[in-house]
Amino acid sequence: MDRFYRGVETGLLGLSFCLGLAAFAALAAPPREAGSLAVTLPMLSVTTGAGP
Fold first, then answer.
1. 33 DSSP 8-state letter
2. Which of 12, 21, 28, 48 has the most crowded Cβ, counting Cβ within 10 A?
3. How do residues 23-43 score in pLDDT, each as one tens digit?
4. Residue 28, H or E segment
5. pLDDT at position 4
6. Are the C-beta atoms of residues 32 and 49 closer than 8 Å to each other?
7. From CA 31, how far away is CA 17, in angstroms rounded?
8. Superkingdom of the source (predicted)?
9. Residue 16 contacts by C-beta under 8 Å, 6 or more apart in sequence?
């Protein structure tokens, strides 16, 4: 049973790592039109602002 929980924990850690990399890559991408992209998570809100 311990192996099962370790496997689940390892899977969740891997998933969070991949999601973190995807979020980092999304921040490095060039911005789209103003108001075209909005990402809202429970503890994080990212929106593209209107350009100057």
1. S
2. 48
3. 888 777 666 666 566 666 666
4. helix 2-28
5. 92
6. no
7. 23
8. Bacteria
9. none
Q: In what helix (H) or strand (E) does residue 47 lie, and over which residues does it extend?
A: strand 44-47
**For residue 16, what are its two tokens?**
């969070």
pTM listed for this prediction = 0.50
12 is written with which tokens? 């969740």
β-bridge partners, 47? 38
Residue with tokens 């990399």: 21
Give the sign of the dihedral formed by CA 20, CA 22, CA 24, CA 27: negative
Contact (Cβ atoms closer than 8 angstroms) between residue 26 and residue 37: no
CA distance 51 to 2: 52
Q: Which amino acid is at 38?
A: A
Instruction: Tell me how far apart the alpha carbons of residues 36 and 10 are, in angstroms, rounded to a whole number.
Output: 35
